[in-house]
Amino acid sequence: xxxxxxxxxxxxxxxxxxxxxxxxxxxxxxxxxxxxxxxxxxxxxxxxxxxxxxxxxxxxxxxxxxxxxxxxxxxxxxxxxxxxxxxxxxxxxxxxxxxxxxxxxxxxxxxxxxxxxxxxxxxxxxxxxxxxxxxxxxxxxxxxxxxxxxxxxxxxxxxxxxxxxxxxxxxxxxxxxxxxxxxxxxxxxxxxxxxxxxxxxxxxxxxxxxxxxxxxxxxxxxxxxxxxxxxxxxxxxxxxxxxxxxxxxxxxxxxxxxxxxxxxxxxxxxxxxxxxxxxxxxxxxxxxxxxxxxxxxxxxxxxxxxxxxxxxxxxxxxxxxxxxxxxxxxxxxxxxxxxxxxxxxxxxxxxxxxxxxxxxxxxxxxxxxxxxxxxxxxxxxxxxxxxxxxxxxxxxxx
Length: 398
Description:
globular, 398 residues, 18 helices, 2 domains, Growth Hormone, Chain: A, single chain, 0% strand
């Protein structure tokens, strides 16, 4: 019997792990703003402010520490970073379940940022060990598993918080991340890793010169930043928007979980397909279609009148999501030297975090002053900007 290649074994275990991590990270989304509301007495403006701040805190810290972890990954390997992230966040999420005020929750979200990077390092490990002609498919599988977890997470979080409580759901989240730690330490192997010495890394400018097109790489990082800002601009207000559409009546948390999960249904079904299609016709074309579709759908979402219409728009957004972030990762892999994969993915992770900082702050600020619908109009304009920059930085340099 032919022996299974190590990269395939790692792909299988990593796919399961990011699926569980996707559940863990997304199952608190439907009720995080509502959980904040239980930690004090807030006005509409105060609740919007704290929701945006708490959502963003993890990414502020993560953006600062991500380059440090990227350097360490080059020296020690990606597996130690996977173990560091999964165990650290297992502890932090458990502690969130015992927070007594919004300040404690804010601090723990910051600590979550310190230990962030599980999914990105898993993707980097898979990307580095997978043959380049199969990278689109492999990263598509990883994206499908991640979004599959993100799909199930809001359902699970909404149901668990209804059956038990918000706090117990945080404990369950910690247990899921500890499971990721156990799977990774036992079954992930990084046998071919070659450490990169500090003197071999060079500075940012020296590294950019090693790419065929530095502008293309920087353009892709900027694309990631704006994608994340757009997608996360609505996160702090999803459950609050659902509550307003339902006029405060009914199973708001459960419906919020369903709404939050719907994009994942489309993404998990489509990401692998679009990854393979991009390998055949050009990944840059898939990204272009995703940006155009996002502009249209975010604009339409601003005018929904009920949760059914909101759900339809969010479901369709999932198809555009499948055309964007995983495909940007694929382009970074295809246009990067193998020895620079970890560094490029750490840059991409930092770009994600910066986008995740500004997105929730934009959404909470706009909603506080102009209402929830205005958030989707502003987000649509953000994606228009992304499309224009993508044309200049990427399409002209392929």
